[in-house]
Amino acid sequence: MNKISQLVARIFLGQIFVISGFLKISGYEGTQGYMEAMGVPGMLLPLVIALEVVGGFAIVTGWQTKRVSMVLAAFTLAAAMIFHSDFSDQIQMIMFMKNMAITGGFMLLMAYGAGAYSIDGYRIRS
Fold it and tell me: In which family does this protein belong, per the annotation (predicted)?
């Protein structure tokens, strides 16, 4: 059961970033404008998209899981602080807490790794 739950957890965490990255491509101008309104240079959007898509796929497949989890945890924490810190807005507070929960999931992956059903797990067995 642990092997399956680790795989499912990675899929749940990773798919958020893969989907979000592709949605940023389809809504590029709006996302860029939102970033700039929050004080983040819009020219960083291609890097954000690459991080989300590549990082998300890395988590799903279990490739370099501890390292990628560290990067995505820091990214998610930074996004919470920059984009979701208006606690007078209940939706923003919920988004902030969602990001904290995702960061916690990545911290577990940093501590325990991807599990058996992963590229990392295969490389350890080989």
Answer: Belongs to the DoxX family.
> In the chain, what percentage of residues exceed pLDDT 90?
94
Report pLDDT digits (tens) over 66-79.
999 999 999 999 99
Distance, in Å, from the CA atom of 93 to the CA atom of 121, rounded to the nearest integer, reads 36
Predicted TM-score (pTM) of this structure: 0.94
pLDDT per residue over 88-99, tens digit each?
A: 999 999 999 999
How far is residue 30 CA from its own chain's centroid? 20
CB 112, CB 62: distance < 8 Å: no
Average pLDDT, stretch 98-106?
98
DSSP string, 71-116: HHHHHHHHHHHHHS--TTSHHHHHHHHHHHHHHHHHHHHHHH-S-S
Report how far residue 3's alpha carbon sits from residue 116's, in angstroms, rounded to the nearest whole number: 6
Q: How many helices (H) and strands (E) does the chain have?
A: 6, 0
Give residues with Cβ within 8 angstroms of 4, minimum separation 6: 117
* Domain residue spans of the chain: 1-115
